[in-house]
Protein backbone atom coordinates (compact mmCIF):
# COMPACT_ATOMS: atom_id res chain seq x y z
CA UNK A 1 0.00 0.00 0.00
CA UNK A 2 2.84 2.38 0.78
CA UNK A 3 4.16 1.95 -2.73
CA UNK A 4 0.76 2.90 -4.11
CA UNK A 5 0.70 6.08 -2.02
CA UNK A 6 4.26 7.03 -2.89
CA UNK A 7 3.70 6.29 -6.55
CA UNK A 8 6.72 4.15 -7.28
CA UNK A 9 5.50 3.63 -10.83
CA UNK A 10 5.45 6.43 -13.32
CA UNK A 11 1.81 7.10 -14.04
CA UNK A 12 0.97 8.93 -17.23
CA UNK A 13 -2.75 8.69 -16.72
CA UNK A 14 -3.94 12.04 -15.37
CA UNK A 15 -6.80 10.36 -13.50
CA UNK A 16 -4.39 8.09 -11.63
CA UNK A 17 -2.05 10.97 -10.86
CA UNK A 18 -4.95 13.02 -9.49
CA UNK A 19 -6.15 10.07 -7.40
CA UNK A 20 -2.66 9.55 -5.96
CA UNK A 21 -2.45 13.25 -5.09
CA UNK A 22 -5.85 13.13 -3.37
CA UNK A 23 -4.80 10.04 -1.40
CA UNK A 24 -1.63 11.77 -0.24
CA UNK A 25 -3.67 14.78 0.88
CA UNK A 26 -6.16 12.54 2.69
CA UNK A 27 -3.36 10.69 4.48
CA UNK A 28 -1.81 14.00 5.54
CA UNK A 29 -5.20 15.23 6.80
CA UNK A 30 -5.71 12.03 8.79
CA UNK A 31 -2.20 12.27 10.26
CA UNK A 32 -2.94 15.83 11.42
CA UNK A 33 -6.25 14.67 12.89
CA UNK A 34 -4.52 11.87 14.80
CA UNK A 35 -1.95 14.35 16.15
CA UNK A 36 -4.69 16.73 17.28
CA UNK A 37 -6.69 13.96 18.94
CA UNK A 38 -3.58 12.71 20.73
CA UNK A 39 -2.89 16.24 22.03
CA UNK A 40 -6.51 16.58 23.15
CA UNK A 41 -6.36 13.19 24.85
CA UNK A 42 -3.12 14.10 26.62
CA UNK A 43 -4.68 17.36 27.81
CA UNK A 44 -7.76 15.55 29.12
CA UNK A 45 -5.57 13.06 30.99
CA UNK A 46 -3.63 15.94 32.50
CA UNK A 47 -6.87 17.65 33.51
CA UNK A 48 -8.02 14.46 35.25
CA UNK A 49 -4.80 14.37 37.27
CA UNK A 50 -5.40 17.89 38.61
CA UNK A 51 -7.51 18.24 41.73
CA UNK A 52 -11.01 19.50 41.01
CA UNK A 53 -10.98 23.01 42.47
CA UNK A 54 -14.68 23.57 41.87
CA UNK A 55 -15.94 20.20 43.06
CA UNK A 56 -13.60 19.89 46.07
CA UNK A 57 -15.63 22.20 48.30
CA UNK A 58 -19.05 21.17 47.06
CA UNK A 59 -21.20 19.21 49.49
CA UNK A 60 -22.17 15.71 48.49
CA UNK A 61 -25.41 13.89 49.06
CA UNK A 62 -24.83 11.12 51.57
CA UNK A 63 -27.51 8.54 52.26
Map the helices and strands.
Blueprint: H1 2-6, H2 14-49, H3 53-56
Residues in β-strands, percent: under 5%
Helix content: over 70%
Q: SS-based structural class?
A: mainly alpha
Query: What pattern of helices and strands is seen along the backbone?
Result: HHH
Radius of gyration from CA coordinates: 24 Å
Extended strand count: 0
Envelope shape: rod-shaped
Estimate the mean pLDDT confidence: 82
Separation of the first and last Cα atoms = 60 Å
Sheet of most strands: none
The helix count comes to 3
Low-confidence stretches: none
Region (Disordered): 44-63
Give a structural overview:
With 63 residues, this protein is mainly alpha-helical. It has a domain of 43 residues. 71% of the residues lie in helices and 0% in strands. The protein contains three helices and no strands. The protein starts with a helix and ends in a 7-residue tail after the last helix. The mean pLDDT is 82.
Task: Provide a quick synopsis of the model.
This protein is mostly helical and 63 residues long. The chain has a domain at 2-44.
What are the salient characteristics of this protein?
63 residues, mainly alpha
Amino acid sequence: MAKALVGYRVAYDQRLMHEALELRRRVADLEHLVDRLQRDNDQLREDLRQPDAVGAGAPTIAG
